């Protein structure tokens, strides 16, 4: 069989099985309350939840909340990635700073960002800024550590070559360090993007600044369980969109890189 | 072709061993110490309500956490955390190995896994509260439901990317399935699995705190929120410090375990780099 048609068969098979998986999951979801394994009061029918989802999609307030969540996500991610790239590059390039900050970084990094929620509430109250503190703290480290590794990973031969060709500092950053660090940077950005979304929703749930997270808590306290399930699906879809989007960006921006080129050839 | 040999390292003669040791300790504690001093000086010079000085926080830490609170709040939290982490790792590796080895299963579940992984875990708390009530089980379920994904997906990837030459060699030597799993598949996947475990640890810690902030009358997350609502600022800070310490401790234990489990792997990397 020609390789291209084998690949076509494989793709079709993957698609068919994947669809079967989703359909099977929805069927199981519909059947569990229908057969009374879990009362429909606690686990609403899949059809009801999906119908509710359709309703929400026609509601402007719902989209405003999506917008608020995504705004917090975007701002947090931007602040964190710019700060992490700047600091990571400087600290990564200067051995003295790297050594001096090592223990501090290793100590601060594992601190769970949600531990700062009470502090953020005290300082900023129920506002976007409080959520941003949490989002930035969580996604900063993801990015920062990757930048630190990336900047330090410059090939010794390439570095020596650059030096013997007398490349200026800015040229070295542009042609040597940036290409080396870019794959790390993109990995960090992808990780930071999904972490930022998690924390954006979490912050809305706990701090109750407006957004999807607060909507979920409100539905919960109103015992609107269909709404809770529908919103959980919405957050999942948002997460999926963020993951897929950043994977795409990663591929695009690294199309010249061995790891991505290799993947496409196979 | 890389030759995998064990390298014997002779202890290097260090004439400046002491000097170097002193220097690296200075580097290790110098900056954190400096930060603490600046913080302390700042808080005495310009007292801010929400940023008490480190001395006050340390005092509050001792008063708050050392004593009965350790048994009533810290231990239950840690227990749930440990249970959640262990379950996540066991379920993740078992299911991941199965899904990674069976191709049709993987293709069947792939879109679903992609979706479930993308759900921000804290939104599962209302659902878990509805289905299980406000119980310890619910908290552990929330931790597992959020923390299992990194191990699961990394195990699948790791199992999938087992070197095909080795798989075929194992097959032609008629090595049994169980042995193949034990000596080939799992070791080959272990670097990936450990990378997943590292993420699992931090996600589990976050979920432990969040689930207690939401629905609990005990535990670290509950305590910290309680302190904040009652404007017990120093106590709240001490809780943040305690959570930080737990995070650091988890990371430290993990890196020790990782070094042991992946000793062979780090060895190979070192030889390749040399």
UniProtKB/TrEMBL annotation, chain A:
Gene3D superfamilies: MetI-like. It is found in: Cell membrane. GO terms for cellular component: plasma membrane. Its main location: membrane. Keywords: Cell membrane, Membrane, Transmembrane, Transmembrane helix, Transport. Residues 66-250 form the ABC transmembrane type-1 domain. One of its GO terms (biological process) is transmembrane transport. It comes from the Bacteria. The chain crosses the membrane at residues 15-38, 70-95, 107-126, 132-152, 173-206, 226-246. The keyword Amino-acid biosynthesis does not apply. InterPro entries: MetI-like, MetI-like_sf. It is a multi-pass membrane protein. Belongs to the binding-protein-dependent transport system permease family. PANTHER family: ABC TRANSPORTER PERMEASE PROTEIN MJ0413-RELATED, ALKANE SULFONATE ABC TRANSPORTER-RELATED, MEMBRANE SUBUNIT. This is ABC transporter permease.
TrEMBL record, chain B:
It is found in: Cell membrane. GO terms for cellular component: plasma membrane. The keyword Lyase does not apply. Keywords: Cell membrane, Membrane, Transmembrane, Transmembrane helix, Transport. InterPro entries: MetI-like, MetI-like_sf. One of its GO terms (biological process) is transmembrane transport. Residues 74-258 form the ABC transmembrane type-1 domain. It is a multi-pass membrane protein. It holds the Pfam family BPD_transp_1. The chain crosses the membrane at residues 21-42, 48-71, 83-105, 201-224, 236-257. Belongs to the binding-protein-dependent transport system permease family. This is ABC transporter permease. It comes from Agromyces albus.
């Amino acid at each position: 069989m020609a390789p291209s048609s084998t690949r076509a068969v494989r793709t079709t098979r993957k698609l068919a099985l994947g669809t079967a998986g989703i359909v099977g999951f929805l069927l199981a979801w519909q059947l569990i309350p229908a057969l009374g394994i879990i009362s429909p009061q606690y686990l609403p029918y899949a059809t009801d939840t999906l119908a509710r989802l359709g309703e929400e999609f026609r509601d402007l307030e719902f989209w405003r909340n999506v917008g608020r969540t995504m705004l917090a996500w975007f701002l947090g991610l931007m602040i964190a990635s710019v700060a992490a790239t700047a600091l990571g590059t400087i600290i990564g390039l200067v051995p003295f700073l790297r050594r001096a900050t090592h223990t501090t970084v290793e100590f601060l990094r594992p601190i769970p960002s949600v531990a700062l929620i009470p502090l953020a509430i005290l300082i900023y109250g129920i506002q976007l800024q409080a959520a941003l503190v949490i989002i930035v703290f969580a996604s900063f480290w993801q990015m920062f550590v990757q930048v630190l590794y990336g900047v330090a990973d410059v090939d010794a031969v390439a570095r020596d070559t650059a030096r013997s060709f007398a490349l200026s500092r800015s040229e070295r950053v542009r042609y040597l360090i940036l290409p080396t660090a870019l794959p790390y940077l993109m990995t960090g950005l992808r990780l930071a993007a999904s972490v930022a979304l998690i924390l954006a929703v979490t912050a809305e749930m706990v701090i109750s600044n407006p957004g999807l997270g607060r909507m979920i808590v409100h539905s919960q306290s109103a015992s609107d369980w269909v709404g809770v399930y529908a919103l959980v699906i919405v957050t999942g879809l948002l997460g999926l969109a963020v993951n897929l989007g950043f994977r795409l960006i990663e591929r695009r921006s690294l199309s010249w890189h061995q790891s991505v080129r290799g993947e496409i050839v196979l | 072709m890389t030759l995998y040999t064990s390298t014997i390292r002779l202890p290097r003669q260090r004439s400046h061993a002491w000097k170097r040791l002193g220097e690296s300790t200075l580097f290790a504690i110098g900056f954190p110490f400096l930060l603490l001093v600046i913080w302390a000086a700042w808080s005495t010079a310009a007292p801010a309500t929400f940023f008490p000085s480190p001395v006050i926080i340390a005092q509050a830490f001792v008063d708050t956490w050392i004593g009965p609170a350790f048994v009533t709040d810290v231990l239950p939290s840690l227990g749930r955390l440990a249970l959640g982490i262990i379950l996540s790792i066991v379920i993740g590796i078992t299911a991941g190995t199965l899904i990674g080895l069976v191709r049709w299963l993987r293709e069947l579940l792939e879109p679903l896994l992609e979706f479930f992984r993308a759900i921000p875990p804290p939104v599962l708390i209302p659902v878990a509260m509805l289905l299980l009530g406000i119980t310890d089980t619910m908290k552990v379920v929330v931790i597992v439901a959020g923390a299992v994904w990194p191990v699961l997906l990394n195990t699948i990837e790791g199992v999938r990317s087992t070197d095909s030459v080795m798989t075929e060699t194992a097959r032609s030597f008629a090595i049994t399935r169980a042995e193949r799993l034990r000596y080939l598949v799992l070791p080959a996947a272990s670097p990936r699995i450990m990378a997943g475990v590292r993420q699992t640890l931090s996600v589990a810690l976050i979920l432990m705190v969040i689930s207690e902030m939401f629905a609990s009358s005990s535990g670290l997350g509950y305590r910290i929120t309680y302190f904040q609502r009652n404007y017990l600022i120093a106590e709240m800070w001490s809780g943040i410090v305690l959570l930080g310490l737990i995070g650091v401790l988890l990371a430290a234990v993990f890196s020790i375990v990782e070094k042991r489990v992946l000793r062979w792997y780090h060895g190979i990397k070192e030889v390749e780099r040399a």
